[in-house]
Amino acid sequence: MHFVKMHGLGNDFVLVNALEEKELGDLPVLARRVCHRRFGIGADGLILVLPSARADLRMRIFNPDGSEPEMCGNGIRCFARYAYEAGLVRGPEIQVETLAGIIKPRLILNGDQVAGVRVDMGEPRLERGQIPMAGEGSPVVNEPVTVAGTTWRGTCVSMGNPHCVFFVEDVAGAPVNTVGPAVENHPLFPQRTNVEFIEVLNRGELKMRVWERGAGETMACGTGACAAAVAGVLTGRSNREVTVHLAAGDLQIEWSRENNHVYMTGPAVEVFRGHFPLHEE
Questions:
Q1: How much is the pTM?
Q2: Any binding-site annotation on 202?
Q3: Number of domain units in the chain
Q4: Are 1 and 276 in contact (CB under 8 A)?
Q5: Contacting residues for 53 by C-beta, under 8 A, at least 6 apart
Q6: Does one domain contain both 155 and 78?
Q7: pLDDT tens digits, residue range 139-197?
Q8: Mean pLDDT estimate for the chain
Q9: Would you say 155 is a known binding-site residue?
Q10: What are its E.C. numbers (predicted)?
Q11: d(CA 66, CA 64)
Q12: Domain contains 280
């Protein structure tokens, strides 16, 4: 199997052109093998480039545990850059079919070089049933979530996939690796959830760590940064345009007043290319 390794702010992916690689076998099993950081290539997800009857291309993504999320913000930037540079789309504006609907990345070009990708992520979904989340009442703002005898206040948003956002005083000391998995699997979230821990630096800057559903703590999460920005507005903590600081760099997030869409701008970088055996020896 031919592959390309890419990352968006350290959130790394193995991309496979499934227009050409057609015999990939059991995809959840393949994802677990490929993403393993000791016995595989190592990645936060396996991304497949597929044909679409509704858009230019279709993206499927599988987590390291083999589960399939609806969308991935950093992943779709990598997808868009790969598709453009491989000549699969004419660009610079692309329509990509995902389980979260049609997502529209736009390549930011400096001559013929890709300087970044701006993605129209669509409208945030704030109704409890759309997140999805058990209970009553929408939007879900500062709702108590109790884990291990401690109650946290979560603001919950769907960006095509579920997010529970906690605001903390010091994100560096946040219990991401204990509270994160407990909230991911909390009965409140029937499809599990991503969990963001956010420190507000000022109304235009947020600092974030994230526990991703099916992947654990990752260096960045694009949909999570979007959810954090929306939660910041809903709780009165931040402006509608913010810089979200992550471990390896920044994302620019805007929640537009004009059309209610969230826009995410950030990098996508190719690391290396190679071949991976489809069958274990």
A1: 0.92
A2: no
A3: 2
A4: yes
A5: none
A6: no
A7: 999 999 999 899 999 999 999 999 999 999 999 999 999 999 999 999 999 999 999 99
A8: 96
A9: no
A10: 5.1.1.7
A11: 5
A12: no
